[in-house]
């Protein structure tokens, strides 16, 4: 069965977004990409804002799948490291979509965000919240297992997310080269130090990191 016109427009929008950036998304460019008229955007989405919203929803679905498609193990810290590795891989492979989800530009999704330090979540929209819910789950498991102290699941998740987000943005900007050093020399050691600071035993953390790296490399 062929994709519906709506699905074709979303996929075309994703291609334009990654190739040319979010500022290049327009009904005219989509018409050229899909061989349709500009009216197709308005017929199926009510306008460009509706299409961008649909692209965002599809992006969060794919992002969450990337974070969670590996089976859970008995080691929540290893599972957290795997999730962090998948987070980085998705961001580097899809930089424009990542910037749309978590960037600060006017055409990012900043209007849908909430203050997680007071609400315990990142957005009121369930379809956009899936990825953070996955992080909350694994952070909760680390706390329950006694690996890290309980400062509150949401704020702990926010701290750990900040580490990944900052390191990934700098790697995307080219500061850590292209040989995997962003993971091996920056993000990995930094996250180990953070978890040890939160109460985990360093040797145990490093064992979890080694197990996670085996999973990540096996998937390549």
Biggest sheet features = none
What is the helix content?
over 70%
Question: What is the string of SSEs from the N terminus onward?
Answer: HHHHHHHHHHH
The fraction of residues in strands falls at under 5%
What is the general shape?
A: elongated
- List unreliable stretches of 5+ residues: none
Instruction: Give me the CATH superfamily of the largest domain.
Output: Tetracycline Repressor, domain 2
Query: Radius of gyration from the CA trace?
Result: 19 Å
Q: How does the helix and strand content classify structurally?
A: mainly alpha
Return the CATH architecture of the largest domain.
Orthogonal Bundle
Overall pLDDT level: 90
Would you mind describing this structure in some detail?
- By secondary structure, this protein is mainly alpha-helical.
- The protein folds into two domains: 5-46, Homeodomain-like (Arc Repressor Mutant, subunit A, Orthogonal Bundle), CATH 1.10.10; 57-218, Tetracycline Repressor, domain 2, CATH 1.10.357.10.
- The chain is built from eleven helices and no strands.
- Helix 4 runs antiparallel to helix 5.
- The longest helix has 21 residues, at 48-68.
- The protein is elongated, with a radius of gyration of 19 Å.
- The model has no long low-confidence stretch (mean pLDDT 90).
In a few lines, what is going on in this structure?
The chain is mostly helical and 220 residues long. It is 70% helix and 0% strand.
Describe the protein's topology.
Blueprint: H1 5-20, H2 27-34, H3 39-45, H4 48-68, H5 76-93, H6 95-102, H7 116-119, H8 126-144, H9 153-172, H10 181-197, H11 202-218
Helix pairs in contact: 1-2, 1-4, 3-4, 4-5, 4-8, 5-6, 5-8, 5-9, 5-11, 8-9, 9-10, 10-11
